[in-house]
TrEMBL record:
Enzyme class: transferase
Biological process per Gene Ontology, one example term: methanogenesis
Native species: Rhodobium orientis
Protein family according to the UniProt entry: Belongs to the trimethylamine methyltransferase family.
Enzyme Commission identifier(s): 2.1.1.-
InterPro entries: MttB-like_sf, MTTB_MeTrfase
A Gene Ontology molecular function term of the record: methyltransferase activity
Name the record gives this protein: Methyltransferase
Methyltransferase recorded as keyword: yes
Pfam families per record: MTTB (PF06253)
Length: 516
């Protein structure tokens, strides 16, 4: 038996009839598009008032830019840069002229062009959980993330067709030293997946190394890499009213090479932003547009996105809350602002639960409801997020993918034609029959409805006969089967050798500087 045949045997189980069945039966890879109009809590006057308040914030209060290069760029463009502080005040005409340079829609092409995705318009995409320091599963409990856990989550991210891009690290591989962690992590992302990937703006070396590795993995020249989007980054403002050095440095480096930047203020209403939603969205908008204007000044027309992470806090404890009614409304309002500026919109699937229980499900569903009804084009943390972003869960990843697949199925066109109207079938059955055995039903029953891979629709007696297993237990079994049966996407051996040689060289050079 060849190595490939052994992998195929591990990936499939025998059906007993001479054929095999996939470990995971799922919908094919595709990018969903919204079929319904967005929900818009604000009327035109409300949108205009938030816009005007954001402009006043930029003009009268200003934003701190903790990056000398960014301030130099803005000063040369005629922006009011305070010589005695980091404060920058932007005229609304300057801001809006730069914002209008940004494309409303663009395509990102990874090393496998078949995994290209479109951001903007009615298109949406889902990404995996990103950046938690801890990981959990039912077998080993909550623990610090390792490279093994990191790789397992990457394999899940690759296996599920409803995951369209790989965000930040699905869990921090804490067992790799920070100076070289990005090299091993990005190597794993590029080898174990062939989807669009994210790079962190956490210092010059990390961003430059990431861009070079993506270029190598796709077999591109520098000119080909710079010519179109191949990867992306996301930066967060340090709310209130501040953009820090590493985020700006990385964003500017990406922008110069034509790579997309999502600007997502982390504005918790009641803590880092006003307690009112309108005030929080106005501040969020000012912070986002300030960085977007900078990037458009650096490279006019570079793809960017307007991001939203406005939620509220528990006013009793100060703890962040997600998936709340305020979170949903803030997301929908943010979607309106993104469309007002003609920018692709990034949102988040989030919850504050500590276990993949009912609270985790309803808060995640609320977050996804807010994101999808707002027509978010980019939905971060859509699978696997727990504990307010401090924990990645293997079981929650699988549970979330069931939900994401159902959302994608929901956003399919509903045919209305002679065949689907079924007049002949209705006439055949008449008032005294049923449709179970009708020819119209028999021709379509296998594909008529959504088929879940995780939900159990059996009655109580059948469920008990099969062990009475909860959804967490079923998810636990499934994620382990998927990881065990995983097969990496193809990569040219010469390209892999070049990637590994680059990583080895950069490690010898010390990687990225750290404090220890």
């Amino acid at each position: 038996m060849t190595g490939r045949e052994e992998r195929q045997r591990g990936r499939r189980r025998n059906r007993g009839d001479g054929t095999t069945k996939p470990v995971l039966e799922q919908m094919p890879w595709r990018q969903p598009t919204y079929q319904d109009p967005p929900i818009e809590p604000l009327d035109a006057e409300g949108v205009e008032k938030i816009h005007l308040t954001a402009m006043r914030i930029l003009e009268e209060i200003g934003i701190d830019f903790l990056n000398e290069e960014a301030k130099d760029v803005l000063k040369k463009a005629g922006v009011d840069v305070d010589p005695d502080s980091d404060r920058v005040r932007m005229d609304r005409d300057f801001v809006m002229e730069r914002v209008r340079r940004a494309p409303e829609q663009f395509t990102i092409t990874p090393r496998n062009p078949e995994r290209s995705i479109v951001w903007g318009g009615r298109h949406t995409t889902f990404g995996n959980v990103s950046s938690p320091p801890n990981v959990t599963d039912l077998d080993h409990g909550r623990r610090t993330g390792t490279r093994e856990d990191f790789r397992a989550l990457l394999k899940l991210s690759h296996a599920f067709n409803c995951i369209h891009f790989v965000g930040g690290y699905p869990v921090e591989p804490i067992d790799i030293h920070p100076s070289v962690r990005h090299l091993d992590a990005i190597l794993d992302k590029l080898v174990l997946t062939d989807k669009v990937i994210h790079a962190y703006c956490l210092g010059t070396e990390r961003v430059e190394d990431a861009m070079e590795m993506v270029r190598i993995a796709a077999g591109l020249t520098h000119e080909e890499f710079d010519a179109r989007p191949r990867m992306f980054t996301n930066i967060n403002s340090s709310s209130p009213l501040k953009h820090d050095w590493p985020m700006l440095d990385g964003a500017m480096r990406m922008a110069r090479r034509g790579q997309p930047v999502l600007v997502t203020p982390f504005t918790l209403s009641g803590a880092m932003a006003p307690v009112t939603l309108a005030g929080a969205i106005a501040q969020q908008t000012a912070e986002a547009l300030a960085a977007i204007a900078l990037l458009q000044e650096i490279n006019p027309g570079v793809p960017v996105g307007y991001g939203a992470f406005t939620s509220n806090v528990d006013m009793k404890t100060g703890a962040p809350a997600f998936g709340t009614p305020e979170f949903m409304r803030a997301t929908q309002m943010s979607g309106q602002m993104a469309r007002f500026y003609g920018l692709p919109f990034r949102s988040t699937g989030a919850n504050a639960a500590n276990f993949p229980d009912g609270q985790a499900v309803w808060e995640s569903m609320n977050s996804l409801f807010g994101a999808t009804t707002a027509h978010a084009n980019v939905i971060y943390h859509a699978a696997g997020w727990l504990e307010g972003g401090l924990l990645a869960s293997m079981e929650k990843f699988v549970m979330d993918c069931e939900v994401l697949q159902q959302i994608a199925y929901y956003h399919q066109p509903v045919p209305v034609d002679d065949d689907s109207l079924a007049f002949a079938a209705i006439a055949e059955v008449g008032p005294n029959g049923h449709f179970f055995g009708a020819a119209h039903t028999m021709e379509r029953y296998r594909t008529a409805y959504y088929a879940p891979f995780l939900s159990d629709w059996s009655n109580f007696e059948t469920w008990m006969e099969h062990g009475g297993r909860t959804v967490h237990e079923r998810a636990n079994t499934l994620w382990k089967k998927i990881v065990a049966a995983y097969e990496p996407p193809p990569m040219d051996e010469a390209i892999r050798e070049e990637l590994e040689a680059f990583v080895a060289r950069r490690k010898e050079e010390g990687g990225a500087p750290t404090d220890f």
